[in-house]
Amino acid sequence: MTNKEAFRSRMTKYMRCLSTGISTEYFWPIELDSLEPQHAALFSYHYLKGMDWKLCCTKMGLTQPEFIKLLEETQEKIGAILNRIDHEIQRIR
Q1: I want to staple 3 with a disulfide (CB 3.0 to 4.6 A). Which of 54, 80, 84, 87 is the partner?
Q2: How far is residue 70's CA from residue 43's CA, in Å, rounded to a whole number?
Q3: What's the structural domain count of the chain?
Q4: What CA–CA distance (Å, rounded) separates 44 from 27?
């Protein structure tokens, strides 16, 4: 699974949990501190708080192309972390 696929898969499950009222407290097994500040901010604003791209751009001082580039980088970085965690879990089992 590519990093982006891992991210999108986890995001789909997260949204499903939100819509059914299941607790999502421990859903993201990463510390946002492990990401660069811009990636952590974008993840928090766009994915966790649900801000659209225009609001994120205003809040973060980005243009639309900068937002898209940062969004793709963020998905890639978080996907890599999720893949690494999944591989460690499989190795331990």
Answers
A1: 80
A2: 10
A3: 1
A4: 14
CB 42 within 8 A of CB 71: yes
Q: What is the pTM of this model?
A: 0.79
* pLDDT digits 0-9 by tens, 32-87: 778 899 999 999 899 888 999 999 999 999 999 999 999 999 999 988 888 887 88
Two tokens, residue 74: 């963020």
**What confidence category does residue 24 fall into, taking pLDDT thresholds of 50, 70 and 90?**
low
Tell me how far apart the alpha carbons of residues 32 and 56 are, in angstroms, rounded to a whole number: 17
DSSP of 5-39: HHHHHHHHHHHHHHHHT---TTS--S-GGGS-HHH
Three-state DSSP state, 62: coil
